[in-house]
Amino acid sequence: MRYFIEFSYNGKNYFGYQIQPDAISVQEELEKALSTILREEIKTTGAGRTDTGVHAKKIFAHFDTEKEVDALNLPYKMNSFLPPDISIKRIFKVKDDFHARFDATYRTYEYYISLAKNPFTQESAWQHWKRQLDIHKMNEACKILFEYEDFTSFAKLKTDNKTNICKMYKAEWEQDGTELKFTVSANRFLRNMVRAIVGTMVEIGSGKIKPEDLRKIIEDKHRNAAGTSAPGHGLFLVDVGYEF
Predict the structure, then answer these.
(1) Which residues are catalytic, by number?
(2) What does the record give as the active site (predicted)?
(3) Binding site residues for substrate, as ranges?
């Protein structure tokens, strides 16, 4: 039987979601809790792989078990077992072939930038207060993203991606006081893609390059053409869509 987990986590203390040798991960903590409570070895498959320090407000994973699980009480048991920075919202049964990663129809991320020194967002936003950003130019650049589907220039080098094609659904910057929020949604994302886009957008907003320069960056199809990746702690996975 296959079950889905909806959960969230603060990524500060983790080297991303996926299990890695000699590094603590969210997946490791999930599997440890499930295996202990269900008294069998449990492996999970996540909706995606977040980088070191990246957070998730809403993410899913699935696991298989031979047992009938008490899906109403299991979240409470797991939350009692898990560290404070991982929270289980719900667990529910799905079809045996329903897949947390491959059956996702879209993913949505938010990236936060603080335009003023803020002691309360040091761990949840990029502190970019020494140089102001032009949000209008950054939104001009966002429109250009929809002209393309090959985002090789924003992909981490030497990965096992079979394709770098992504369908963009939304890309927009919003300002609320001294806080900037970038919302981006697509059918899939490449490793490091959102952080690389944000880093490039900041170069546009600070006047280092022009919005129209983004076309050449994308058409070069090489990571060195784009800007430096934005820090991981400002990035949040906020939604993953499915047709249950």
Answers:
(1) 51
(2) 51 (nucleophile)
(3) 109
